[in-house]
Design goal:
Layout (H helix, E strand, L loop, with lengths): L1 E10 L4 E10 L2 E6 L9 E4 L4 E4 L1 E6 L1 E2 L2 E2 L5 H12 L3 E6 L6 H17 L5 E2 L2 E4 L21 H10 L3 E6 L6 H10 L3 E4 L6 H9 L2 E4 L10 E3 L2 E3 L2 H7 L3 E5 L7 H11 L4 E4 L11 E5 L6 E6 L2 E3 L6 E4 L3 H10 L5 H8 L1 H6 L17 E4 L5 E6 L2 E5 L3 E2 L3
Parallel strand pairs: 1-4, 1-5, 6-9, 9-10, 11-12, 12-13, 13-14, 14-17, 17-18
Antiparallel strand pairs: 1-2, 2-3, 4-26, 5-23, 7-8, 15-16, 19-20, 20-21, 21-22, 23-24, 24-25
Helix pairs in contact: 1-2, 5-6, 8-9
Length: about 400
């Protein structure tokens, strides 16, 4: 089916086109125009008063709509993909938690089963294994029962078990972590630094050996510290200093406005990927919930717009959606709308190596499109040209 989006403000990587026209067919963008154009036999969608942006790409998300990827079922994957599409996510990277080997393998099986039939939700780009190779001291809400050092016998089994892994997060200071990063680079898998007490020399060595992304910057990682009276740069300062990509949980809670502004000032929109890090309670009422699988996850409480451990000693994941990330960067961090959208689409597409087909509204790329209003409410989401969510849009004048 051929579509013509008219009268919206189209956000491209280069400019905003007011009252522009976007034409797409068979899942591919055919053209962008500065004015109305005649497109025979096209379904016309009136986007008056709305922004037309590239679909958002969430490269770190655990769940939503009452489900978690660690539930290990096809249905859980599909429900999460559909829930986040309602809020503008057109591609996502399902993320695990630290767990037993059998649970990780079951989750990989569920991903592959869901990926074969997913037709109503965000595209599943591949799996992100968050752990289990972490520093116990920086575990946050990761279950300490399953935290361990890199084991070649274990990770080689996982790598040979599934070709669906596209990124893996680990603490680079652990014994065996550098060899692990090298192995991931050999396999074309993105290695990321996470839940770590690494200092600058550790991070630099990791960066030189394949680790190119800092997972949820500030959360679960060391900052400047003193040892024998001398100060050392931690992982946070190292990630800001090096030419390393960083993730930001843009819910406005994990990082307050001054830190959002600081990271943006230092790294800029081309090095920052906005992520939800959302758990199963995203899109659900506040109250008691579960982080991880229903079988052996951690009980949490959702209040004040965030998930917390029951003793309230740490956050346990966000309940944000991607439209909220963009809104918060504009409203809290004083970032321009084009840059905020870039951090939610173009930059994560480049980080995950899918920027030749996703992440921007350019002729020939996938028709992953989101329409949202001045209040950042999503009114339509297209995934590869298919309308998977519609709230209040006019189709052929009706």
């Amino acid at each position: 089916m051929r579509y013509k989006l008219t009268n919206g403000t189209i956000l491209t990587p280069f400019r905003a086109i007011p009252n522009g026209t976007l034409v797409f067919e068979n899942g591919t963008i055919l053209g962008l125009h500065e004015r109305a154009v005649d497109v025979p036999d096209a379904v016309e969608i009136d986007a008056t008063g709305q922004f037309v942006a590239p679909g958002f790409i969430d490269i770190h998300v655990h769940g939503g709509g009452g489900s978690d990827f660690m539930d290990g079922t096809q249905d859980a994957f599909l429900r999460i993909a559909e829930l986040h599409a309602r809020y503008g996510t057109t591609s996502l990277v399902p993320t695990t938690l630290t767990a037993e080997l059998d649970d990780l393998l079951q989750t990989l099986d569920a991903f592959e089963a869901a990926n074969r039939v997913n037709a109503k939700g965000a595209t599943l780009l591949g799996m992100h294994l968050e752990g289990p190779y972490f520093a116990l001291s920086q575990r946050g809400a990761q279950d300490p029962r399953y935290i361990r050092h890199p084991d070649p016998a274990e990770y080689e089994r996982i790598l040979s078990y599934s070709s669906s892994i596209v990124r893996w997060s680990a603490a680079p200071e652990l014994d065996g972590a550098i060899a692990f990063g090298q192995r991931l680079r050999q396999k074309g898998i993105l290695a990321a630094i996470a839940h770590t007490d690494a200092l600058y020399d550790d991070v630099l060595t990791a960066y030189e050996n394949g680790y190119s992304l800092a997972t949820h910057l500030y959360s679960g990682m060391s900052g400047v510290t003193r040892r024998n009276a001398f100060r050392y740069a931690g992982t946070i300062e190292s990630a800001l200093l090096l030419d390393m990509d960083v993730e930001l949980i843009g819910d406005g809670i994990h990082l307050p406005a001054p830190l959002l502004k600081l990271v943006y000032k230092i790294k800029g929109p081309d090095r920052i990927a906005l992520i939800t890090d959302a758990m199963r309670a995203a899109g659900m009422p506040e109250g008691e919930s579960m982080l991880g699988s229903l079988k052996n996850g951690l009980a949490v409480i959702v209040e004040d717009g965030v998930a917390k451990l029951p003793d309230r000693t740490a956050f346990a994941g966000s309940v944000a959606t991607t439209n909220q990330l963009v809104r918060n960067m504009v409203k809290l961090a004083d970032v321009s709308l084009p840059d905020a959208v870039r951090m939610a689409s173009t930059t994560p597409a480049r980080i995950m190596g899918v920027d030749t087909r996703k992440g921007s509204l350019v002729t020939g790329k996938d028709a992953d499109i989101v329409l949202f209003d001045q209040d950042f409410r999503v009114n339509a989401t297209f995934v590869r040209g298919k309308l998977v969510y519609a709230n209040s849009i006019l189709v052929n004048g009706q």
